[in-house]
Structures are given as C-alpha cells and as structure tokens.
C-alpha cells in the first residue's frame, strides 16, 4: 500500500506545484489553469516518477500472484 500512497502524493504534489507556478506567471482563467496544469503535471509525472510507478506496478503484480 505504501508505494501507491507515495506515487499518489507525488502526483498531487506535482499538480499543486504546476498549478501554483502557472497561476503566478499569469494564467488566471480557472478552466485553462486546470487543463494546462493537468497536462503539464501528467507529462512531468511520466518523466519524473518512473521509479514510483514501477514500484506500484510491482506491488500490484505481486498481489495478483497470490
């Protein structure tokens, strides 16, 4: 359960940081702020969180083997 929590918290943290940075640089329209934040944080998490994602998938596959 721990790898899943770490990965989820990391994804949420990346989204919050992206949201905050985009807001500070001048993107104030809420709809576009959410959309751009989701896209940018999704791409960043794909690149930056590969170890955590691998740990989650390993944990899931071990659970299915039982």
Automatic annotation (TrEMBL):
Pfam families: DUF4229 (PF14012). It comes from the Bacteria. Keywords: Membrane, Transmembrane, Transmembrane helix. The chain crosses the membrane at residues 5-25, 31-49. This is DUF4229 domain-containing protein. It comes from Sphaerisporangium rufum.
């Amino acid at each position: 359960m721990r790898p899943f929590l770490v990965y989820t918290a990391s994804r949420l943290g990346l989204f919050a940081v992206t949201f905050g940075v985009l807001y500070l640089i001048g993107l104030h329209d809420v709809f576009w702020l959410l959309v751009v934040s989701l896209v940018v944080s999704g791409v960043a998490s794909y690149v930056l969180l590969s170890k955590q994602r691998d740990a989650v998938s390993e944990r899931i596959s071990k659970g299915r083997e039982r």
